[in-house]
Design brief:
Length: 85
Amino acid sequence: MRVQGAVIREQGQTFAVVIVKPHVVQNRAEAADAIQSFTPVFGVPVVLMAQDGRGRPTFYGRQDIARFLSGVPLSAIPWREYTIN
């Protein structure tokens, strides 16, 4: 499986953000399952990001990280593709 994401080191914290479909962040159980499955892969806290039809992002996960990311332009996030087995 391939996912788009980023590992970010900011203010002494390291975390990952992973792009998912909007329905994942709209369903708490599905979002929790996704975070649980991605966390061992990245080895750091994971926040999910989905975009609506206009490209506006929604972040789901740890509130402090989600709040931080909501103020960061998407173009400033170092996105890359990860292959997950």
